Amino acid sequence: MLILHFTFFIFIYMWPICKKELRQFFSSLTGYIAIIVFLLVNGLVLFVFRNNIFESGYATLDDFFSFAPWILLFLVAAITMRSFSEEFKGGTFEILQTRPLSQWQIVSGKFLGSLVVAVIALIPTLVYYFTINHLASSTGIDSGAAAGSYIGLLLLTAVFTSIGICVSSFTTNSVVSFIITLVACILLYFGFDAISQLPMFSGSAGYYISLVGINSHYQSISRGVIDTRDIVYFASLVIFFLLVTRQNLQKR
């Protein structure tokens, strides 16, 4: 019953905003080009560039799941950079506020719309899994690890999307939003790992610092083990950035 109420809430209150985001992203070639470039670069790294799977001789998607988050950074930044900045710049945010929607519904709808676009870009990468699994001469890909890695990518996408939505709510310039989103995502994804490796943080201190970053939790899920602590970590980040976005909209 609770699930039905939640689904009803999404379609009635969030879907109009979500649909607007989808229409805005796919109304020009920019959206299609961003997705095509994302798939093309990942495909080249996996099958063409040096140390590809044909050279290694192993049926594995480890290289894809290690490299994909970095390309995902640029994709999500491109998807979210106009979410609120274009609304502010074009003066349509005031029109949006006249609709019978709360600010939380607007934020949630924007987040859901951008997340759906990013997930649409991830779905075709399943071809990599089936292709490599088919080409394997004996044992195929570890399905459990692959499933865990895809769940990790989805959670990572949700966090990056919430960061991009939040950044976009602070500026009227979409290019500035794109750059700041990139920097913020990189710092949260890899920054704490880099700090934890400094000599002054050797031992347990470095370990706890790395836990603050996204990468350690993403790597944990990518092993195929779904830990509740990792799920809570990703969910907390998403909720935090969406709440910051809502608070910023209230000030406006």
Automatic annotation (TrEMBL):
Cellular component terms (Gene Ontology): plasma membrane
TM region positions: 29-49, 64-85, 106-130, 150-168, 175-192, 231-249
Keyword Transmembrane helix in annotation: yes
Keywords assigned by UniProt, alphabetized: Membrane, Transmembrane, Transmembrane helix
One GO molecular-function entry: ABC-type transporter activity
Keyword Phosphoprotein in annotation: no
PANTHER family: ABC TRANSPORTER PERMEASE
Protein name: ABC-2 type transport system permease protein
Source organism of the structure: Flavisolibacter ginsengisoli DSM 18119
Classification lineage: Bacteria, Pseudomonadati, Bacteroidota, Chitinophagia, Chitinophagales
